[in-house]
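Input sequence (120 aa), recorded before submission:
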Amino acid sequence: MKLAVYGTLRDGEALSYLLSNYKARSKTITLTGIRLYSLGPFPAAKIGSKKDKAVVEIKTFNLTKQRENELLGYLDIVEGVDQGLYKRQIIDTPEGPSIIYIFQLSIKGFPLITDWSKES
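Predicted structure, token format:
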């Protein structure tokens, strides 16, 4: 399973410890087609056009289906999926299909950014 993280779950960021029980390889890439916004304490990603770019970490996990479901269920809670804050989506990346959490609320008035680690 591959997971594209762009904010507080990236290595060294505030919530990166939440992934520490799940060993993963990480590769930082610039991904096209994603718009990234700073909401203050955390970022928000939206699907954009080919001209949009965002720095993301692709985390590659080698998990059993049970552990994968456990991790995704946990992340759904953290990302507020049931509350409509984020939606889990699969996108194509140069590293292969990856899961990303896309922000579902309005981003009107928030600044567009490229790299969350430079904002936090």
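Checked by second reader. Residues 2 and 60 are 5 Å apart (CA to CA).
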